[in-house]
Amino acid sequence: KLKGPINTLVDLKVYRKGEPELLDFTVKRNHIPIKSVDAAYKLTDKLGYIKINRFAESTYKEFKKELTKLQKQGISELVVDLRNNPGGFLGVAEQIVDEFLEDDKLILFTKNKRGDIEKSYATKKGDFEKGKVYVLIDENSASASEIVAGALQDNDKGTIVGRRSYGKGLVQREMELGDGSAVRLTVSRYYTPTGRSIQRSYQNGNRDYYDDYFDRLKSGELIDPEKIEVADSLKFTTPKGKVVYGGGGIIPDVFVPLDLSMQNETLTFLDRRGFISNFVFEELEKDRHAYDSISRDEFIKYFQFDDDMVLQFQDYLNEKTKANSTFVAYNEEVKQYIKATLADQLFGNGAFEEVINQSDIMIEEVIILSNRED
């Protein structure tokens, strides 16, 4: 068994490709850290980037560490990428917002069915109160992610870029039962500083609630901001006069449509099914030392595959799936995914994002906005 008390030893036998026999290792058991900050690096001389995949106990500490590094490198603007972030600990989200807001600015408030209100304010000097902030969100950004986006938008601090967020803003309390199970009971709702409710309506039942993504897709909302339904009765105004809407989710200041192109759908599918990572691993094992002399920065900036690599992947995929796939129409996109995956396997620590973000349309939009404001 691999699991056991901290600081105890366990003997392992490991199969390594190319070795004739199993290798013996003795390792010490410890906590396995699960990072919630996927990547942090400079997009331009003045613009930093931090991607948060969820709000865990360690997230604020990770975020603060990376923000400090970027500030030492001279950034004055920051992208906080919350796409596909399902949320997590509310208190951690508040800590991160506090880095951007001046003292005593309202971060959020909660209200229960009796009308009791609890407010949360920025309480200390933040490290990025003077800097410009861009927050990236999409239809999978939920809960604590929406707290961050809504607090910054309502305080006229950040520019929200992307698509309307998920719409989850319920406060739940966990109650343990006698048999060891637990029930999560909804006790109140979150509201942004202007008074907007983040929560989408359950009025039409669970089925409609969970089919919301498909409803957005059918309505055209994910590709056309004019299709986003808003109600005048849920109109709110920020301190500087910007109109924002409640009713479920955060509507971005700058809309970026969902990429529904065939190549994006195909590559996303292949990546999630592990075809690309398995192919790259097998190719890397053939001659791992071929990359010993290239640094991370050199690889990300200059390394390029030729078209033969795409043909090799095509042959690999067809062998595995017994299909007849061809990628002639989007060679460059395939090469970029393979390069990003190889960067991740060689260097880790956000190398995948650094490569894949080079053609990310939301990142491109932020860079345009940043340059426009110079």
UniProtKB/TrEMBL annotation:
<dbReference type="InterPro" id="IPR029045">
    <property type="entry name" value="ClpP/crotonase-like_dom_sf"/>
</dbReference>
<dbReference type="Pfam" id="PF03572">
    <property type="entry name" value="Peptidase_S41"/>
</dbReference>
<protein>
    <submittedName>
        <fullName>Peptidase S41</fullName>
    </submittedName>
</protein>
<dbReference type="GO" id="GO:0006508">
    <property type="term" value="P:proteolysis"/>
</dbReference>
<feature type="domain" description="Tail specific protease">
    <location>
        <begin position="20"/>
        <end position="202"/>
    </location>
</feature>
<dbReference type="InterPro" id="IPR005151">
    <property type="entry name" value="Tail-specific_protease"/>
</dbReference>
<dbReference type="GO" id="GO:0030288">
    <property type="term" value="C:outer membrane-bounded periplasmic space"/>
</dbReference>
<dbReference type="GO" id="GO:0004175">
    <property type="term" value="F:endopeptidase activity"/>
</dbReference>
<keyword id="KW-0378">Hydrolase</keyword>
<keyword id="KW-0645">Protease</keyword>
<keyword id="KW-0720">Serine protease</keyword>
<dbReference type="InterPro" id="IPR004447">
    <property type="entry name" value="Peptidase_S41A"/>
</dbReference>
<dbReference type="GO" id="GO:0007165">
    <property type="term" value="P:signal transduction"/>
</dbReference>
<dbReference type="GO" id="GO:0008236">
    <property type="term" value="F:serine-type peptidase activity"/>
</dbReference>
